[in-house]
TrEMBL record:
This is EF-hand domain-containing protein. PROSITE patterns: EF_HAND_1, EF_HAND_2. GO terms for molecular function: calcium ion binding. It holds the Pfam family EF-hand_5. SUPFAM superfamilies: EF-hand. Keywords: Calcium. It comes from the Eukaryota. Transmembrane segments: none annotated. The keyword Calcium applies. Residues 100-135 form the EF-hand domain.
Length: 183
């Protein structure tokens, strides 16, 4: 089954908001450096903070794996079409995610979970969404639509995350995991 327009919109939202930071239309090393800079700003970390270094190492490894798995034409960047192909492959069997996808899911959880207690509460969720340009009211609405109660545990998160990247169902709770309520 080809990628639906709905899923393409969700994929483009993540591509534009969380990966292609310099809006060049592709993901490359420059975006990664910007991402690291933004995380440090958001958390108030200096570049030599051990947590900053740990996230930096994780993201660098993720970038290498993403490039290996998705940069089909090997031009050093991941285009939108290459991004779509990556997730089209994923959706065929979400329980068999690549190492990159598993790392990405776990890093996303860590970014939301600012306090590091393995649970994301509404304020943590809204803070990260707001930082990426989602209005606070929309992020709070999205949190409600996730249907998780007070907090997103790792188990709930993994289910919602899978839905975001594989579901064609417009009312699936997982569609709201990045704070957007419509696409
Ligand atoms: Ca870019
Ligand atoms: Ca490429």
């Amino acid at each position: 089954m080809p990628l639906s327009e709905f899923r393409k919109k969700k994929l483009l939202y993540v591509f534009n908001t969380f990966f292609d930071f310099n809006q060049s239309g592709a993901i490359d090393r420059k975006d990664l450096d910007l991402a690291i800079q933004r995380i440090n700003e958001n958390r108030g970390w200096s570049a030599d903070n051990p947590k900053a270094q740990s996230i930096r190492d994780t993201l660098l490894k993720m970038w290498d794996n993403l490039r290996q798995g998705a940069d089909t034409d090997q031009d050093g960047q991941v285009s939108r079409d290459e991004w779509f192909q990556l997730w089209e492959e994923y959706a065929k069997n979400p329980s068999n995610a690549s190492e990159w996808q598993q790392d990405y899911m776990s890093v996303t959880f860590q970014l939301f979970d600012a306090s590091g207690d393995k649970s994301i509460d509404e304020n943590e969720f809204c803070n990260v969404c707001r930082y990426h340009g989602v209005a606070e009211a929309e992020a709070r609405e999205a949190f409600k639509k996730l249907g998780v109660g007070q907090e997103i545990t790792w188990d709930k998160f993994t289910n919602l995350w899978k839905q975001y990247f594989s579901s064609d169902e417009p009312t699936a709770a997982g569609n709201f995991i990045f704070g957007k309520t419509s696409f």
